[in-house]
Specification:
Helix 7 links the parallel strand 2 and strand 3. With about 250 residues, the protein is an alpha/beta fold. The protein has 2 domains: about 1-30 and about 80-120 and about 165-245, TPP-binding domain (Rossmann fold, 3-Layer(aba) Sandwich), CATH 3.40.50; about 35-75 and about 120-160, SIR2/SIRT2 'Small Domain' (2-Layer Sandwich). Helix 8 packs parallel to helix 9 (about 200-205). The chain has helices at about 5-15, 40-45, 45-50, 55-60, 60-75, 80-90, 105-110, 170-180, 200-205, 230-245; strands spanning about 20, 100, 115-120, 120-130, 135, 155-160, 185, 210-215, 225-230. The strands form 2 sheets. The chain has a 6-stranded parallel β-sheet with strand order 3-2-1-7-8-9, with helices on both faces. The protein has a 3-stranded antiparallel β-sheet with strand order 5-4-6, with helices on one face. The protein is elongated. The structure holds 2'-O-acetyl adenosine-5-diphosphoribose. 2'-O-acetyl adenosine-5-diphosphoribose binds near residues 29, 37, 162, 189 and 232. 2'-O-acetyl adenosine-5-diphosphoribose binds next to loops.
């Protein structure tokens, strides 16, 4: 396994198709807490009580009050950081074909990334549990929880709760990118949640180089070709600078 940012940049520059897989860690420097580890959301909230679709169906007011309101407020204030901007810059330079993100914060799009696959959905839109009417987040009043549709049904964000399937199009496109790419840049994910965690493995089985960016070792580190240890903002910025020498 290699640790050289310059060598990783060379691999990315030479790839015919490179994609990124991102997780909560890439948004930590934007002020959004991760799920696992110190200060993680799942340290404060049991995911099966607050993030499972059955829990939401049974107690939408509780899930909205405890988890979704916190998420909405935090995401509303967050701005893209150097890592989001770096991936957008790589796409502009033709070095990255797509970002597959497990995040629901919309920060890749805010940073200028165009080809973004939202594997776990998005907090940017909601819909009614009863009549399925779509509701843009900006129109939702969170003064009274849970927020409701004009028909009286409970509104839910268009995110993937535990117990729900990954949106078919996102799953199929991501799997296709994983099979076809020759480099995958994995940034800020613990690689513990399936099926997202399988994507780098699929890529590796199909001959791609795996480049991991994370301050901690993960389940993916041993299969990675490059382990670039550090915070996403600094490492992705250095990768983008190093690309110049290889384009
Ligand atoms: P996790 O919270 O599991 O992992 C965050 C990762 O980011 C860890 O490996 C940290 O070491 C790393 N990290 C922390 N700070 C970082 C920084 N500044 N730069 C780079 N990396 C940093 O988040 P995910 O892997 O995204 O699913 O979690 C996957 C899924 O689990 C989420 O999408 C969510 C959650 O339950 C659903 O809600 C369906």
């Amino acid at each position: 396994m290699q640790t050289s940012i310059d060598a990783a940049a060379r691999v990315l520059a030479r790839a015919n198709m490179a994609v990124a897989l991102t997780g909560a860690g890439i948004s930590v420097e934007s002020g959004i807490p991760p799920f696992r580890g110190k200060g993680g959301l799942w340290e404060r909230f049991d995911p099966m009580t607050y993030a499972h679709i059955d829990a939401f169906r049974r107690h939408p007011e509780k899930v909205w009050t405890v988890l979704l309101k916190v998420l909405s407020d935090t995401l509303g204030k967050a701005r893209p950081n150097a890592a989001h901007r770096g991936l957008a810059e790589m796409e502009r330079r033709g070095c990255l074909q797509a970002v597959i993100t497990q995040n629901v914060d919309g920060l890749h799009q805010d940073a200028g990334s165009r080809e973004v696959i939202e594997f776990h959905g998005s907090m940017a839109s909601h819909h009614c549990m009863d009549c399925h009417q779509a509701a843009p987040s900006a129109t939702i009043d969170l003064a009274d929880l849970p927020p409701r549709c004009d028909c009286g049904g409970v509104l839910r964000p268009d995110i993937v709760f535990f117990g729900e399937a990954i949106p078919t199009a996102a799953l199929q496109r991501s799997a296709q990118f994983a099979r076809m790419c020759d480099a995958i840049l994995v940034v800020g994910t613990s690689a513990t949640v399936e099926p997202a965690a399988t994507l780098p493995r699929i890529a590796k089985q199909h001959g791609a180089s795996v480049i991991e960016v994370n301050p901690e070792p993960t389940y993916l580190t041993t299969l990675s070709d490059f382990s670039l240890m550090g915070a996403a903002g600094a490492i992705v910025s250095r990768l983008v600078t190093a690309l110049d020498a290889h384009l």
